Amino acid sequence: MHPAALAFLAFLPIVVVGVFLVGLRWPASRAMPISYVTAVLLALFVWKVERWQVAAATINGLIVTATLLYIIFGAILLLNTLKHSGGLAVIRQGFTDITPDRRIQVIIIAWLFGAFIEGSAGFGTPAAVAVPLLVGLGFPAMAAVMAGMIIQSTPVSFGAVGTPILVGVNTGLTGDAAVEAFAAAQGLGWTELLAHIGFKVALLHAITGTLIPLFVVSLMTRFFGPNRSLKDGLRIWPFAIFAALSMTIPYVLVARFLGPEFPSLLGSLIGLSIVVPAAKLGFLMPAKSEQWEFAPREEWPAQWSGAFEIKDGATNGRAIGLIRAWAPYLIVALLLVATRIPEFGIKPLLLGVKVEWAGMFGTSINARFEPLYLPGTVFIVASLITFFLHGMQRDSCLGAWRESGRTTLKASLALVFTVPMVQVFINSQGGGAGYEKMPIVLAGSVANLAGDAWPACAPFIGGFGAFVAGSNTVSNMMFSLFQFDVGQRIGVDPTWIVALQAVGGAAGNVICVHNVVAASAVVGLVGREGDVIRKTLIPFCYYALTAGLLGMIFVSAQ
Q1: Contact, 70 vs 374, CB < 8 A?
Q2: CB of 42 within 8 A of CB of 13?
Q3: How many C-beta atoms surround the C-beta of residue 321 within 10 A?
Q4: Which of 544, 444, 556 is nearest to 492 (CA)?
Q5: 3-class secondary structure for 93-112?
Q6: How many Å apart are CA 520 and CA 410, to the nearest integer?
Q7: In 3-state terms, what secondary structure has residue 335?
Q8: Closest CA to 335 of 369, 375, 371, 384
């Protein structure tokens, strides 16, 4: 088959998503089954993949879906527990005491606190924490989801204590003779090579990501403000840039001197320690007369709101102070850090409890479920502690569990087809037709067209990988070696091309379908996924284009 025709066919499952989900605004529960069927038919009849491999990929997708639903349930449960305990009302008042300005609130919660959660846990956890917290503070559900998705860019490459680099890039490059020869020629050991790439990733992110807080507030005021104005967001540009640099500068320094494990984790913590006190002191803050708020709730269009309602819970006559109200989120943060850093010794114990199915149906596909290690378990533990910490009544606790179960169930239909489609798509290698897997066919076609301009395209390939897979780590596994090879073919430093891949892979999380579905489900906003992606496409295109242009500058300067 002609390469162009094959590339078009490989692109069809994504075209289906674009047309039905984004273009026609179908809910994911209707659009994704069509995309799944398209991927299966292509795998069976064009790529001629064995039916058992398609079945294994589908079942693995369902197992991954179960893990996502478990995380979603845990996040919703913690939110509902705080709602019933009255802790959410206290947290809301605490932010109002700093400032009632929603633009400042979204920067602190989504950009800084969300980046900290990304650095410690990754895997979509920031949206599961920051999005419901924003809704609890009075943000429209769609605005909260949009903000939560946009910040899943800059911190993602170093999320889960550096997993996208230490696992994704590492796995993608390991064992290739050309990569090993390049490292030896540069006098780099393997760990040094990964740190070398990681620093370049951090540099690209820091430059590109410095405008992300400004994007968040400007798009929020444009799409959800009473004046529908970008200017309302741009007016706080000094504070937005200050908050960005408070995170990105230490982020780069940590990547340079400590390696890829801690840039997002420490960068965000340092940023929080700088920005929150500065906000309390009024540094670069808007004047009281210029503080920004959403229109009254009764004026919001119906599609802005999810199933989650803000109702202050009863505290049984016991006052809940700000520290006690925040304690569940602090517990989540501490547990995530303690269980993700191997030196604490907890991670191996949790990973030891697993259900594994290796070589499913005689294929190379492996499925694994590690219930104790998943962030969902951390959320559930924190919610149980909250029951006692906030002195809740038994009926309130049971009500939180019932509400959380119902909301999670609504999200299941879309994910049941979304993740299996992804698994079939990325496990389409080894078929009787002899073609590469669908993502590689697409990437190869783009590389042939781009030629020497490839550095500008590399982030888009990384973003495409994350868009379909829902993971920067998986995108890096799929494409790192391909990107390295292309870099060598066009005669540039291939580590810059791999770095561009990792940056694009992080940006792809902004538009990833199953991440949007998961974030929307946490606040009961099911069926509006296409509307969210239409909005997050703007910052994704900015991110990939800017990183690509920076890549062209850096490689041409060598």
Answers
A1: yes
A2: yes
A3: 11
A4: 556
A5: HHHHHHCCCHHHHHHHHHHH
A6: 10
A7: helix
A8: 375
Q: Which residues contact 2 (CB under 8 A, 6 or more apart)?
A: none
- pLDDT 10s per residue in the chain (558 long)? 888 899 999 999 989 988 998 888 888 888 889 999 999 999 999 999 999 999 999 999 899 888 888 887 887 888 788 888 888 788 878 877 888 899 999 999 999 988 988 887 776 777 777 888 898 888 999 999 999 999 989 999 998 778 899 888 998 898 888 999 999 999 999 989 999 999 999 999 999 999 999 999 999 999 999 999 999 999 999 999 999 999 999 999 999 998 898 899 899 999 999 999 999 999 999 988 899 999 999 999 988 987 666 555 454 545 788 888 888 888 888 888 888 777 788 888 898 888 889 999 999 898 888 889 888 898 899 999 999 988 888 888 888 898 888 878 876 777 788 889 888 988 999 999 999 999 889 888 998 889 899 999 999 999 998 988 878 988 998 899 999 999 999 999 999 999 999 999 999 999 988 888 888 887 888 788 889 999 999 999 999 999 999 999 999 987
Closest alpha carbon to 67 in 530, 500, 514 = 514
Residue whose token pair is 């390991």: 174
**Residues 264, 480, 197, 457, CA torsion sign:** negative
Cα 370-372-377 angle, rounded to 5 deg? 120
Residues in the chain: 558
CA distances from 480 to 117, 169, 191, 347, 424 (A): 25, 6, 16, 27, 20
Which residue has 């200050």 as its token pair? 242
List all residues 6 or more positions away from 376 whose beta carbon is below 8 Å from its beta carbon. Answer: 67, 70, 71, 72, 73, 74, 75
Cβ neighbours for 438, distance < 8 A, ≥ 6 positions apart: 10, 13, 39, 42, 43, 47, 425, 426, 428
**461 and 472 Cβ atoms separated by less than 8 Å:** no
User: Measuring CA to CA, how many Å separate 555 from each of 484, 487, 542, 548?
Assistant: 13, 10, 20, 11
Ramachandran angles phi, psi of 86, nearest 5°: 95, -5
SS3 content of the chain, % helix, strand, coil (to 5): 75, 0, 25
The rounded distance, in Å, linking the Cα atoms of 350 and 428 is: 32
Q: Report which residue type is found at 67.
A: T
Report DSSP state, residue 235.
Answer: T
**Cα 420–chain centre separation:** 19
Do 44 and 51 contact (CB within 8 A), yes or no? yes
Cα–Cα dist 72/379, whole Å: 9
- Alpha-carbon distance of 57 to 172, in angstroms, equals 20
Task: Classify residue 516 as exposed, middle or buried by CB count within 10 Å of its CB (0-12, 13-18, 19+).
Answer: buried
List, for residues 144-182, the tens digit of each pLDDT value. Answer: 999 999 998 999 999 877 889 988 899 889 888 899 999
- Structure-block tokens of residue 251: 């982020």
DSSP 372: T
- Where do runs of H (alpha helix) occur along 122-168? 125-136, 141-150, 159-163
List Cα–Cα distances, 254 to 206, 216, 261, in angstroms. 12, 25, 9
